[in-house]
Amino acid sequence: MAAGFLTRERTVAPPGWSRWLIPPAALSIHLSIGQAYAWSVFKPPLEAGLDLSGFLSALPFTLGIIMLGLSAALFGTRVDANGPRWAMVVSSACFVSGFLISALGLYLGQYWLVVLGYGFVGGIGLGIGYISPVSTLIKWFPDRPGLSTGIAIMGFGGGALIASPLTQQLLGTFGATGANPDVGGVGNTFLVLGLIYAVFMSVGWLLIRVPPEGWAPAGWDPAAARKRPLISLANVSARNAIKTPQFWFLWVVLCFNVTAGIGILEKAAPIYRDFFPGGTTAALAAAAAGFVAILSLANAIGRILWSSTSDFLGRKNMYRIYLGVGALLYLALTLTTNTNKVVFLVCCLLILSFYGAGFATVPAYLRDLFGTYQVGAIHGRLLTAWSVAGVLGPLIVNAIADARIAAGVQGPGRYTTAFMIMIGLLVIGFVCNELIRPVDEKFHEPAVEAAARTEAAA
Amino acid sequence: MSTESWGPVQWIGAVLLWLWVLVPFGYGLYQLLTRIPALFGS
To answer: Which of B15, B39, B42 to mutate to test the interface with A (most CBs of A within 10 A)?
Structure first.
């Protein structure tokens, strides 16, 4: 009975079901799992309460991002086969369990349980949850795939906006702030957050629906849409997709676009302080916090704005902008440094908007190249690029900045070498995007077999 | 697959569903926006 509730058959939309009910169901999941980006709020009380190093306090987040990529790659095919409700229930169970295990670990004073719970178990929930609504949204919005996936993936960016102030308030309520935070209070915060997310995510898996077989939006002509360049007429399986050069070119594109964004995001506050060091210490700290906030806003807005634009300009053209203009913006930052604050802000905002847009546009790009058959699984495999970039970006920026600081370099000069490397990566990504052509027919699923499989899955 | 056949109950449900995600998002957005003026010295 319970298993039946989770099957794809039980999620087929009844007559009268509007496709505009699907984005909020997807957002219920993505706004929750986006909490991962607010992990830094937990770091000070954990470090002070358990006497942890910065490396150890970051370990649950780092492991969580690694598990995100791995679980999305490993379980992507199962997510496509079992349907979005199954995926959202599994994601919710893992993500919430991560909080509850972490709370238990903090009550017992066993930090390894936080790493295991939040990082490993919760990280699996992140990966499955991230890809769970993507193929469903693409099927409901074949006319606007960029817009629909942009809404959901903006939710992942927006999750931290909710979690960050909420976590700070809970930590304050439970006496887990200041120089001597109550570790049990941190545990209470994990427990309450876990319960909140259990309720919030349930709306997602209760309301998610897949369209009936053969459904299309009124007035939409698939044949006309597919006349545009790079939009495939056929489907490619996940197993075959990773054998194509297109998949690996796109892997490099995503990896380097994310690396370039992290280049600024990772050290946003110190970059601002080193570029514009004037004013009192308090005013500078507030301005740096404002800089981080405005970058987060650009990251979130870029996801929906540029991804929606890709429905009109085409996916390849959008990545030309993200990578080509992104490289020019980094060049402008390197050349103008701190001579003009407005130029600095505009460059940083656009770079971060392209960073977010890179995530949001890629599912629609995959749909164009490989069809809808196993787009969720292919997306899951592509997200390993994110895991690599999550390590590569901070490594480049931190290593170079630290070396420059050790050499006595002051001001913007601490970052210009890292920025030049980012330009190089973006240019490589631009070339890879240029090399993307329609997928060779030998990788296409046989039309009859694909239709039968899709029908069986539906 | 459209809203043409919806009655008041469906409309209220749909509005509540969107509020379910937009209210928390609005709260987070408000908290974020309050930090931005400091960037411009306000």
So the answer is: B39
Contact B20 A24 (CB under 8 A): yes
- Conformation bin of residue A439: beta by default, left when phi > 0, alpha when psi is -120 to 50: beta
SS3 label, residue A327: helix
Q: Which residue has the tokens 């990566």?
A: A425
Cα A268–Cα A272–Cα A276 angle in degrees, nearest 5: 175
- Whether residue A145 contacts residue A363, with contact meaning beta carbons closer than 8 Å, is answered with yes
The tokens of A117 are what?
A: 């719970």
Residues of A in contact with B17 (CB under 8 A): 21, 24-25, 203, 207
Domains, chain A, ordered by start = 2-207 (1.20.1250.20), 225-457 (1.20.1250.20)
Q: Which residues contact A75 (CB under 8 A, 6 or more apart)?
A: A87, A124, A127, A128, A380
Q: For residue range A250-263, what is the model confidence (pLDDT) as tens digits? A: 999 999 999 998 87
Q: Using an 8 Å Cβ cutoff, are A359 and A258 in contact?
A: yes
E-state strands within A185-315: none
CA-CA-CA-CA dihedral for A385, A386, A388, A390, to nearest 10: 160
In B, minimum Cα distance to A295 occurs at: B36
- A430 close to A323: Cβ distance less than 8 angstroms: yes
Residue A411 backbone zone (phi > 0: left; psi -120 to 50: alpha; other: beta) = left
pLDDT at A448: 53
- The residue with greater pLDDT, A92 or A395, is A92
- Residue A360 pLDDT greater than 90, yes or no: yes
Q: Say if residues A303 and A158 touch (Cβ distance below 8 Å).
A: no
Tally the residues of chain A: 458
* Token digits of residue A314: 């085409």
What value does the mean pLDDT take over residues A16-40?
92
Q: What is the C-alpha to C-alpha distance for residues A444 and A81, in angstroms, rounded to an integer?
A: 19
Report CA-CA distances (Å) from B29 to A33, A164, A223, A353. 17, 11, 40, 16
Query: Phi, psi at residue A18, to the nearest 5°?
Result: -85, 140
* C-beta of residue A276 within 8 angstroms of C-beta of residue A341: yes
Task: Give the model confidence (pLDDT) of A202-246 as tens digits.
Answer: 999 999 999 998 888 888 877 766 666 677 778 999 999 999 999
Q: What is the pLDDT of residue A458?
A: 39
- Residues of B within 8 A of A218 (CB-CB) are 2
Share of chain A above pLDDT 90, in %: 60
